[in-house]
Write a structure and sequence with these properties.
about 140 residues; alpha/beta; Nucleotidyltransferase, domain 5; five-stranded mixed sheet; 5 strands; about 35% helix; globular
């Protein structure tokens, strides 16, 4: 079983955004993969969706679809979108997540606090404040 923690950061003044994910083995808590990068989106909510899309694509690209995945997010909008397989505000992103998740045998989601999501949060914040040339 794998745990996916995602987060996003957005600066409303500069309109810069970043996303991050951390993928861990459930038993050992060993980090299998992590990534953070800047992206172009309209707001933080959209960035939250993109962070999960990025993590799911990583798992698919690395043939990890047979694993049970636990998706942990501090974004209520993302959590509800996964549960309903729909988002009024982000229908394209929600549909892509639904399509990606259909490639996995079993998954479940859990809404967590910001405090429980520190690692992904730190990665997203660091990527947001990195100079674009450093990326």
């Amino acid at each position: 079983m794998l745990i996916i923690k995602t987060d996003a950061a957005f600066d409303p003044v500069t309109k810069n955004a970043s996303i991050a994910y951390v993928i861990q083995d459930f038993t050992s808590k060993r980090i299998i993969a992590s990534n953070a990068k800047r992206i172009n989106v309209q707001d933080n909510h959209q960035a939250e969706f993109e962070a999960l899309i990025d993590a799911l694509k990583y798992l698919i690209d690395h043939d990890l679809t047979e694993s049970i995945i636990e998706i942990l997010t501090d974004s209520k909008g993302l959590f509800l979108s996964i549960e309903k397989s729909y988002s009024k505000s982000y229908p394209a992103e929600s549909q892509l997540i639904t399509d990606l998740l259909s490639q996995f045998n079993l998954y479940y989601t859990k809404l967590i606090s910001d405090k429980e999501n520190k690692h992904a949060h730190r990665l997203a914040i660091t990527a947001l404040h990195k100079k674009k040339e450093d990326q």
